[in-house]
């Protein structure tokens, strides 16, 4: 059998067809899961402070350092991990990041500082260390820093997923056409939610601010898993499901010198170390971490976490909900 000559290949190109048997991906054995990537806080924090000296949010849309996968899948791949884009954002005292909105879902987890406020669809959400603030798809949001020290937080968005689908869209301010809102206090009673008026979205949580104090209290009473860990999830109080349509997040509490049961999923995750030090086994790799470090757990890897000489808390942000909705989610323990 002879190989196609130049004239044949030219005809294929002109007709926009290609031989499947020469595809680099079709009918090939699975190469196995990607390996994890670690971003140590001792490296990232000085870089964030350095970025603050280079430009101002008044001149650019956002002062952000993206966490980019060191093994991109194509030339313009800016994802941190498959469907997830993570970044470090910083505001100095007195600064403001002007309002905008977009089709992508985003969450903000404060790594350092307090005194900030994120205004989401008109609701003022305080930003203190370890708080989480949601900015779901098409919610107007701006950041204002009223504190005295630099404010640094983790952003996680589903940008790569939208880029792939062609649904990534952006709209600058000024803020307009705000939907009706219900104050967070209406959702503060356990097991009771208000009978919300028409127009209150259920695709995402009507509560945009999740203070760490609430997570702390929930962890104290959460049941222990077989491996001794406690886990709590950020949810939409109106549905009991994930706080946003395509992003899921939870916190794992691990006692000192304890290890979690290995877990494997078809979804991807980004882990932020809230407190403690230890190591995680991700597939065949071991990631050693301490407070405020960040690392990835690519799909298909079995992952277990071991705490050091003190208790550890880990924030996990996942694209799990994308896979569940598409009936592609598989999960296994042990």
**What is the H-and-E element order?**
HEHEEEEEEEEEHEEHEEEEEEEEEHE
> What fraction, in percent, of the residue positions are helical?
10-25%
Mean pLDDT: 95
Which CATH first-tier class would you pick? Mainly Beta
User: Which sheet architecture does the biggest sheet show?
Assistant: 6 strands, antiparallel
Low-confidence stretches: none
Per DSSP, the total helix count is 5
N- to C-terminal separation?
A: 49 Å
Detailed description of the structure:
- The protein has helices spanning 6-15, 41-52, 159-165, 212-221, 320-325; strands at 38-39, 64-67, 85-91, 96-102, 106-112, 116-120, 123-127, 132-135, 141-145, 151-157, 170-172, 209-210, 230-233, 248-254, 263-265, 269-275, 277-282, 285-290, 294-297, 302-307, 312-318, 331-333.
- With 334 residues, it is an alpha+beta fold.
- It has a single domain (34-168, 204-333), classed as Jelly Rolls (Sandwich).
- The strands form four sheets. The chain has a six-stranded antiparallel sheet. A six-stranded antiparallel sheet has the order 2-3-10-5-8-12.
- It is globular and about 75 Å long.
- The mean pLDDT is 95.
């Amino acid at each position: 059998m002879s190989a196609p000559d130049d004239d044949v290949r030219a005809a294929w190109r002109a007709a926009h067809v290609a031989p499947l048997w020469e595809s680099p991906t079709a009918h090939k054995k699975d190469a196995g899961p990607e390996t994890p990537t670690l971003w140590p806080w001792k490296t990232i924090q000085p870089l964030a402070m350095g970025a603050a000296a280079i430009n101002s949010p008044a001149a650019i849309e956002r002062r952000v350092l993206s966490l980019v996968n060191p093994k991109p899948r194509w030339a313009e791949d800016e994802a941190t991990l498959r469907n997830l884009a993570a970044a470090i954002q910083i505001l100095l005292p007195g600064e403001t990041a002007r309002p905008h909105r977009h089709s992508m879902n985003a969450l903000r987890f404060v790594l350092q500082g307090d005194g900030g406020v994120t205004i989401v669809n008109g609701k003022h959400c305080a930003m203190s260390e370890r708080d989480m603030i949601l900015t779901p798809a098409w919610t107007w949001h701006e950041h204002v820093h009223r504190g005295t020290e630099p404010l640094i937080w983790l952003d996680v968005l589903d940008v790569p997923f939208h880029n792939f689908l062609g649904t990534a869209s952006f709209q600058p301010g000024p803020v307009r056409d705000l939907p009706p809102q219900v104050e967070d206090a209406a959702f503060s009673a356990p097991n009771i939610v208000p009978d919300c008026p028409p127009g209150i979205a259920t695709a995402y949580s009507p509560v945009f601010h999740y203070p760490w104090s609430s997570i702390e209290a929930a962890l104290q009473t959460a049941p222990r898993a077989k491996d001794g860990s406690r886990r709590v999830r950020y949810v939409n109080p109106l549905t009991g499901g994930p706080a946003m349509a395509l992003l899921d997040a939870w916190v794992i509490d691990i006692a000192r010198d304890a290890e979690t049961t290995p877990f494997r999923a078809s979804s991807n995750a980004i882990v932020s170390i809230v407190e403690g030090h230890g190591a995680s086994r991700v597939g065949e790799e071991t990631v050693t971490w301490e407070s405020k470090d960040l690392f990835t757990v690519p799909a298909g890897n079995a992952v277990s976490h071991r705490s050091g000489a003190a208790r550890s808390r880990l924030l996990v942000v996942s694209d799990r909900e994308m896979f569940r909705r598409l009936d592609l989610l598989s999960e296994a323990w042990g």
